[in-house]
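Marked as duplicate of an earlier ticket. Keeping the data here for the record.
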Amino acid sequence: MQLIFHRKPRRRLPLLSTALGALSLAFAASALPATAAVGPASVVQGRTNTLASFGPTVYSDGLQRQYLVKNGRVYKRTEPNWNTWENISAAFEGVPQLPLGENTSFDVELYRDGLHRQFLTRGGHVYRRIQTGIDQWGLWENIDAAFPGTGSEPISSFSVAVYADGLQRQFVVRGGQVFRRTQTASGGWPAWEDITSVFSGAGSSEATITAFHVALYNDGKLRQFVTRGDQVYRRTEPNWNTWEDISSLFDGVGRSADPRVDDPIHKRVMVIEFNPTIQSMNNQRLSQAKGWYDPRVLEQQYIQFLEQASGQVVQYSIAKHVFVDAFAPRTQNPIYSEATYLKCLADEPDTCPRQNDFDYVSVLRQYGVCEKANAGEIDELWLWGGPYFGYFEANMAGPGAFWTNGDPIPPQLSTCQVKLNIMGFNYEREPERMLEDMGHRVEGTMKHRFGRWANSPPAPPSTMFPPDANLLERFTARGFDATTAACGNIHGSLNTPQYDPGNRWGYDFTNGHYEYNTCDDWENYPNLSPGATTLNNCTKWGGPRCTFPDGYRAADRGWHLYWLGKVPNFVGSHLGVQNNWWWYVMDWDVVAP
């Protein structure tokens, strides 16, 4: 079901050097052994892990904290608990002084006044906040004006270090170049100087430097850390000519502890939000005027839910956000005015155009979306709007674009030279609808991979389940299909005993019927065991009140997380198919046959 903007059914209702030595980080029809595959990470086009920066600092309590920015997420570990990384990214979300953007560096430094400063580099800009007391901080402020003479490229890292002489050194990385300035004895600051050449021995000179940090350890020696080409290199005073690659220390950060689960797939997103001002409703944005959801909150929930469901395989970060104070452009219907849109909502669906006629071509062109995708700055496009804005839930642009859950954009009509997944989201609706959209994208992508989906809704079941059923058909077997049920589809139907012509799309994840199914066995993919069934109903994913009106929301969210959590996410390949289906969904050209 691809028409999201026709409203869907709803219910009311010690030292690093020591630690390096000691550190130990954990990382089909028949049950045939899985074969190893050439990892997608070896393909340039595929982005697995984006290791942006690493920087340690010694706090006023004498203990070291280390900060790692990976896939847009900020992680921290505190001496002596070197094996425990904590994701602290939530501390930077929903903060009014911090605009949207991908986190690329985080640094903390203890100044001579005894107070810490924190520096967050995000979306090409640098923000600072100053400690005001124990566990108390002032507001974040933008300090981009502090970097004159360093160029105009986006900033990827800023850090500060107080050396043994008591003077500060500041370092900014911009466009792959590293600049430094050194505080004078009188407290003044000279001009920035380019010191990029000193890193010639750290990794490949062709790889881009994204961060540089310096820390004075308790032993009185400086350590320097440069991040280059997703690798972290360290050198220790006085051995300034020897850089060592310490990247492997961070392999397990942000990924599943289960070694069967594949590495994360990191994708950067461009968001275009159509959210017009409604003058007749106190000049509020549409989403606010109607009391709908905050797109910023929905985005973060969606990112977190997908990471959770996929076993940390799917990891998104917002790279760019464009706000448009207008209604979305259309190709078959007039662009809404405030009056026509409010009338549509008042008498829906009578005056609401129901075509998926959003003008993708003009928007891709106007906002340079394909150019950003071609340059590797973004990997996906997310569109925000209200109901009846004409988006597909999921579609695709670029060469070889195919149906994911909406019409692909003809390659000749865009300048995209790579496949670009596009998602259409509705800020009137809850985050479960975004998860449903992704579920349909999984279904559409895997149908394209296997060439068929015989048991796709809304058609009634066949009297005979395909004897040559492919893996998608087996995975989505429903309770009323002529075979043992598996996981059903994203709408439900796992435990539906009979096909209901009045509910052809199968929104029945609150069904209390108990059904034997093989869904849990898909956690062993590709080593599936014939006859391995469990007896479940909606309490499996929705809790004890899943059949009651007050349990609908929990069942709704629980179902979508449950279903997406069963999508194979494992290392290796089997019979020519990647054991991690998310590679097809997230980056088709990396693994396409």
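See parent ticket for discussion. The radius of gyration is 26 Å.
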